[in-house]
């Protein structure tokens, strides 16, 4: 195989200074954050990197800056492998706004448009090209990459959402498996693989399947301190609980509500609209054009709530999402972390709210048990679910548990529901023994197993047709738990399942005893359980919120007026350009403009987020909006 044509080496001083100069000139930032500088240095020098960085941590700069630097040094085009059309379009739009020539190849382009992009790539005029993994694997595209490679014009491969390559991850995509061929066919081209979420199993899979054994691994803190985590027990009407949360905390603010099924998405979105909430549905069963329209509206409009399955969200860069809510339990902590991480990307206060109940636990376990996967995979998935249940049932700091799952030590955060409003606990040992005894009696007397509803009826002494059919009113456990309400018993069972003393099995999710239940029945284990309550809520943050106040909480009245004027101007520009408003400038940059009130272009250029191209394109208009002399 031919090797790339030799390039003349730049001076070491220029190579080291170039990334920071690009960051300042193109993106308008004075310095790198966290480990960005280390990552950029590694990739600019031609080394491979595996990057784990939380959503909102600045992953895209870790390959965009090296892409620009390597092109300026004569290395050619960077190919970004991305799984989602929305992400490609937003990032390409943002790069073009910043003066960087970028393009994407996906199914939204006509044949003529795609051929134009290919010509731009092969000519060397493009700096970054975004493409889906399916496109990268086609013989035509590989042949084009080969042509670039032989001319020494293939600078870098960036593999975004790299956790998709792992069968242990929460979003496995088989088309990612073939991306190892990039290293096989183009061994001289550096690679950077990036993800926001990966436990140890997933990380090991990424290294193995992408042939990144020699890559430097960069793991940033997974902490998102601006996100407040709230988990509540499902009451009689979870939708009403959700509505109270939105009205109390996030009225007229952007948010995402996740539901497990398409039907529930449609019904919840319609119900929220009937209650005066500006909500839209999104799921894979919708017409593709309607789905795209809804996504575009969410990205471009203020205060819209998207009700969706997990088909929505990955790659969505909207920075001002103020809340993410789950009406159903996610599959695992990785999924929960990534989905909640779509809130508060701008660094302003945001909330992750979830309601879950016994039925969620039963349903998730049943889906794992009934999946066609092999037993080792099912065992791993059960372990991941158990970790999520432990988070949901925790009486201590949510954030500590979440970060500990990813191997990170932390102190109590003071910004989750358990820290702000510690839950009541009670000694549930005797109640647990009652429930376990009843499950044992079912099996002993009739040789059958029953579900949670029937168990609670027997414990509370509720005579139903089913109770009479099986003669369970004659059991020694009949009515022994009448002092507890149905809600309390559901909480007990949910926690027994979460603790691993009870498991569900079969089509009807009947209850069975685990080996560890023996010690509980013998009184050898004391169980301190969480007191059920569907009315617990963390202290409201609404006082520090409220449209502009949430986005720029420390502005005085005059600065707030300037901020609103800038937002109105930005909305007009975004409409003219057909882009989301945040691609023009993010709220944090507009807030800083309003706060500093620059009087000339030099002062405006000093504000974080104002690059050279944007200063040239918008500077005088911004000064006009701020009512200053240009």
Unreliable residue runs: 1-9, 534-539, 541-548
State the helical fraction. 40-55%
User: In CATH terms, what is the architecture of the largest domain?
Assistant: 3-Layer(aba) Sandwich
**Residue share in β-strands:** 5-15%
Broad CATH class of the largest domain: Alpha Beta
Question: Order of strands in the sheet with the most strands?
Answer: 3-4-2-5-6-1-7
CATH-defined topology of the largest domain? Rossmann fold
Mean pLDDT: 88
Task: Sum up the overall morphology in one term.
Answer: globular
What is the CATH homology-level superfamily of the largest domain? P-loop containing nucleotide triphosphate hydrolases
Q: Structurally, how many domains make up the residues?
A: 4
Cα-based radius of gyration, to the nearest Å: 27 Å
Tell me what the structure shows.
The protein is an alpha/beta fold and 630 residues long. It folds into four domains: 208 residues, 3-Layer(aba) Sandwich (Rossmann fold), CATH 3.40.50.300; 197 residues, 3-Layer(aba) Sandwich (Rossmann fold), CATH 3.40.50; 100 residues, Winged helix-like DNA-binding domain superfamily/Winged helix DNA-binding domain (Arc Repressor Mutant, subunit A, Orthogonal Bundle), CATH 1.10.10.10; 74 residues, Orthogonal Bundle (DNA polymerase, domain 1). It is 47% helix and 12% strand. It has 28 helices and 17 strands. A seven-stranded parallel β-sheet has the order 3-4-2-5-6-1-7, with helices on both faces. The protein has a six-stranded parallel β-sheet with strand order 8-13-12-9-11-10, with helices on both faces. α13 links the parallel β12 and β13. α24 packs across α26. The radius of gyration is 27 Å and the shape is globular. The protein starts with 11 loop residues before the first helix and ends in a 5-residue tail after the last helix. The N terminus is likely disordered.
């Amino acid at each position: 195989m031919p090797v790339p044509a030799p390039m003349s080496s730049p001076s070491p001083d220029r190579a080291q200074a170039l990334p920071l100069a690009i960051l300042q000139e193109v993106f308008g930032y004075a310095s790198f954050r966290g480990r960005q500088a280390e990552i950029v240095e590694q990739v600019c020098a031609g080394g491979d990197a595996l990057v784990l960085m939380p959503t909102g941590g600045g992953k895209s700069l870790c390959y965009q800056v090296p892409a620009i630097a390597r092109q300026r040094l004569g290395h050619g085009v960077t190919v970004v492998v991305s799984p989602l059309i929305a992400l490609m379009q937003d990032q390409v739009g943002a790069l073009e706004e910043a003066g960087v020539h970028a393009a994407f190849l996906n199914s939204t382009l006509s044949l003529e448009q795609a051929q134009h992009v290919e010509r731009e790539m092969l000519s060397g005029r493009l700096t970054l090209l975004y493409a889906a993994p399916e496109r990268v694997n086609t013989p035509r595209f590989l042949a084009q990459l080969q042509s670039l490679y032989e001319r020494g014009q293939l600078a870098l491969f960036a593999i975004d959402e790299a956790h998709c390559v792992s069968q242990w991850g929460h979003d496995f995509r088989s088309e990612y498996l073939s991306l190892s061929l990039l290293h096989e066919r183009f061994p001289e081209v550096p690679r950077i693989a990036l993800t926001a979420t990966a436990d140890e199993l997933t990380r090991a899979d990424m290294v193995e399947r992408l042939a990144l054994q020699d890559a430097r691994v960069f793991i940033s803190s997974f902490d998102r301190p601006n996100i407040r985590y709230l988990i509540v027990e499902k009451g009689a009407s979870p939708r009403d609980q959700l509505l109270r949360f939105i009205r109390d905390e996030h009225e007229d603010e952007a948010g995402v509500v996740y539901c497990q099924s398409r039907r529930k998405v449609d019904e919840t979105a319609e119900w929220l609209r009937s209650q005066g909430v500006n909500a839209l549905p999104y799921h894979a069963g919708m017409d593709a054009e309607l789905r795209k329209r809804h996504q575009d509206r969410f990205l471009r409009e203020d205060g819209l709530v998207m009700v969706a399955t997990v088909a929505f969200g990955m790659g969505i860069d909207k920075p001002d999402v103020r809340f993410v809510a789950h009406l159903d339990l996610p599959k695992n902590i990785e999924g929960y972390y990534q989905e909640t991480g779509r809130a508060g990307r701008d660094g302003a206060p945001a909330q992750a709210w979830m309601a879950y109940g016994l039925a969620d636990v039963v349903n998730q376990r049943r889906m794992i048990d009934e999946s066609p996967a092999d037993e080792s995979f099912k065992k791993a998935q059960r372990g991941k679910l158990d970790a999520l249940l432990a988070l949901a049932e925790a009486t201590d700091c949510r954030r500590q548990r979440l970060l500990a799952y990813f191997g990170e030590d932390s102190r109590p955060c003071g910004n989750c529901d358990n820290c702000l409003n510690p839950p009541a606990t009670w000694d549930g040992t005797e109640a647990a023994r009652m429930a376990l005894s009843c499950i044992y009696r079912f099996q002993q007397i009739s040789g059958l197993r029953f579900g949670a509803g029937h168990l609670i009826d027997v414990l509370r002494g509720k005579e139903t047709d089913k109770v009479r059919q099986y003669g369970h009113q004659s059991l020694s456990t009949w009515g022994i738990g009448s002092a507890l309400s149905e809600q309390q018993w559901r909480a007990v069972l949910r926690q027994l399942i979460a603790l691993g003393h009870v498991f569900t099995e079969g089509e009807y999710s009947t209850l069975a005893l685990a080996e560890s239940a023996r010690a509980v029945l013998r009184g050898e284990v004391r169980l301190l359980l969480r007191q059920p309550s569907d009315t617990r809520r963390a202290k409201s943050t609404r006082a520090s919120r409220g449209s502009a106040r949430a986005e720029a909480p420390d502005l005085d009245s005059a600065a707030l007026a300037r901020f609103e004027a800038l937002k109105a101007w930005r909305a007009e520009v975004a409409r003219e350009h057909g882009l989301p408003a945040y691609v023009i400038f993010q709220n944090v940059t507009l807030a800083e403009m309003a706060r500093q009130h620059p009087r000339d272009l030099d002062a405006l250029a000093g504000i974080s987020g104002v690059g050279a191209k944007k200063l040239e394109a918008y500077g005088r208009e911004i000064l006009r909006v701020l009512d200053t002399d240009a």
